[in-house]
Amino acid sequence: MSTPVRGLLDGITRIGVVGAGQMGRGIAQLAATHGFAVTLADAQRDIAERGRTAIGQQLAKLVDKQKLTAADRDQIVARIQPSDLYGGDLEAADFVVEAATESVSIKREIFQALDQVCRGGVVLATNTSSISITAIGAAVTRPERVIGMHFMNPPPLMKLVEIIRGLATADSTYDLTRALAERLGKETVVSRDVSGFIVNRVLMPMLNEACFALYESIASVDDLDKAIQLGLNHPMGPFALMDLIGLDTTLAILEVLHRELGDPKYRPCPLLRQYVAAGWLGRKSGRGFHHYGAGAPASGPIR
User: Fold this and answer.
1) Is the pTM of this model over 0.70?
2) Any idea what the Cα angle at residue 170 is, between residues 169 and 173, rounded to 5°?
3) Is 220 designated active site?
4) pLDDT tens digit string along 44-60?
5) Which of 132, 150, 258, 290 is catalytic?
6) Which domain holds residue 261?
7) CATH code assigned at 279
8) Active site residue 299
9) Pair 225, 185 in one domain
10) Is 191 within 8 Å of 164 (Cβ atoms)?
11) Residues 222, 224: Cα–Cα separation, whole Å
């Protein structure tokens, strides 16, 4: 495997981030915090503008905690340029990370657009947590420039980035991606292009089994969370983690694993499907396996 060389990032000054949702905002914030100019793009510019506003609000919390100065916050936000996917602003990007919905059809459509908008030598990375890099790369004319760059949630805090090479990914693409991840303060691991890669291949069966344990009335949400958190020394329990990830995202990843690997151990729990159907998606909707927001119970699991 190739290794980064001195000066590899000399030409990288602007990072494009496609998707202004939770992960995209986190990646944009991370890149801007490390001094990069950022183009934050979504289907419509106003979505990206709301994403930049949300980043400013998140940084304001750090100012309140005296972990960041107000001047630094303003500089970070000023480095982020909202855009839409088709407006041409991404032409100036030197490296692009896609962080859209975990759907192969949506990602392929985005990569086809990036293939037209971005310059020929620009790396097109995807933050997918489960979808084949080779399949995404097949949608563009330069698959050797496509790679998986999977940030953990939340990107500004979590130290790991998984790097996944598709069949056509060039060594130079890997070298640049690893160098950028390290420039952003991350540790990297490399995975084969097999559904779920490393982290979700191990994590998702555990989260799904927790859902089945609740479904079978083995224990309550609170007790299951407490047992795993304290019994295994995890920072949070499985239901709190699913609420943070998003129950819809958890379900989407399990569906990809089940479909691509064909193993029944990845069959999503019916209870998880019900919660997603109800719109109980976790923190982002104010309600998942726990309640969130104003007026929520102190320990508000939905039984």
Assistant:
1) yes
2) 95
3) no
4) 999 999 999 999 999 99
5) 150
6) 200-285
7) 1.10.1040.10
8) no
9) no
10) yes
11) 6
